[in-house]
Structures are given as structure tokens and as C-alpha cells.
Amino acid sequence: MTTIGRLFALLSLTVPSAIAAPIYVNGAPNDSSGNEVTSRVQAEDFTLSESVSLTGVRFWAFYFTDIAAGYLGTVEWGIHSDAGSQPGSVLFSGISTPSVSPGAANCCAGIDGLFEFGLPDVPLVAGTYWLTLHNGPTSQTADENFYWQTTVSNATAPGLEQTIPFGASVWINTNLEHAFELDGATSSAAEAIPEPGTFYLAGFAALALVLRRSRV
Predict the structure, then answer these.
(1) Are 94 and 35 part of one and the same domain?
(2) How far is CA 151 from CA 28, 29, 34, 126, in A?
(3) CA-to-CA distance for 28 and 34, rounded, in angstroms?
């Protein structure tokens, strides 16, 4: 293969990208319990040691369809500031349709699922925040028997929950930790990866130099 051919092959195959990876792990499901996520909004705190851009959420849950609707097909989520060991103001929020794959064994022989959805690049500086989840839109307040699975206790604050009316300042301690992970990239990692446009510009500049030299 000629030098020019090698350059074209390199440009077509070597495309840098920021691959989403867990930047926070609260723990895997422990087959112990869960908290209902329709009649209540569930919240878990997480702490970041540096600035990051969150790109996705992954959590484990189980549900039942014999006595209620179970999973409603969407998840309303929020990222909150920390207000003295409970969720504060809403920084980012939305309603997403997670991809659902087989989850983990649960305490009550429910239908298990691993729920994953993307975020619109949520930029956060170092600090403590809260993730809130609700099965379907928060206008749905009936108990639909959809449960966020627990994980083992860790160094973070236990999960909190809020009953209707949602949006109030009263949060109740569940004394449980819940299984979830957050995907994203640190600022340093994102800066280390060139934008695709920059990458291709450098590649075509090198190609132009080769072509110029071949004509000399």
C-alpha cells in the first residue's frame, strides 16, 4: 500500500471518541429489598471529586404486573443540589425511555430489569448531588409496584423518599442504599480527546503535505 493509501486508511479507521464509562458506582443489587418508585420519588446522593459531564444513568429495579401496572415505560429523573443531606434545587431534569435488559435476582420473585438511559451531557463541578427517580411522569402517583433495588450500605447517606405532594421539602429516610451507576467523563479526559473536526483537519493537512512532496 502506498503512503497516501495508508493515510486514507488511518483516517477512516482511527476516529477518536469519548466512550461513556461509569464515573460513579453506588453498588450492585444485593437481592435484599427495594423501594416503590411511583407513589414516591426516590433519591440517592453521590459525590464527585472533580468536574464531570454526566452522560447516562443505570439502575436496577423489579416490578409486578399481577396487581398493578408495574413499569410505566418511562422514568422521570432529576439531578439536585445538596441541601443539608437532602435534595435541594433541581439543576437538571427530564423524562427518558430507558433501554431494559435482564436485571438481577430480587427478594420477591418480581420481574427484574436493568434500566439504562442517556443524559444530555449534564456538566457538574466537584461536590455532592442527588439523583431522583420516578416511574413514569410525576403526575402518576398510584402505587404501581415498581421498586428500585437496594445495594449494600456504604459511606454515603442512605436513600430518601418523598410522598405526594411531590416537590415539597419533606424527605423521609429509607435507611437503605439503592443500586445505580452514573456514566460520564471527567473534564480532564474530555480535554485529552480532540474533537473529530480537529482530528480530521490534522489528518488532511498531513495528506496535503504528502501530496505536495510527491510532486516535487
Answers:
(1) yes
(2) 6, 5, 9, 24
(3) 13
Same domain, 82 and 106: yes
Statement to judge: residues 106 and 143 lie in one domain: yes
In tens digits, the chain (216 residues) has pLDDT values of 555 444 444 444 444 444 468 999 999 999 889 999 999 999 999 999 999 999 999 999 999 999 899 999 999 999 999 998 999 999 999 999 999 999 998 888 899 999 999 999 899 999 999 999 999 999 999 999 999 999 999 999 999 999 998 988 899 999 999 999 999 998 765 443 444 454 444 444 544 444 455 555
Same domain assignment for residues 184 and 159: yes
User: What is the pTM assigned to this prediction?
Assistant: 0.79
In what order do the strands lie in the sheet containing 40-48?
A: 87-96, 75-82, 127-135, 40-48, 160-163, 172-173
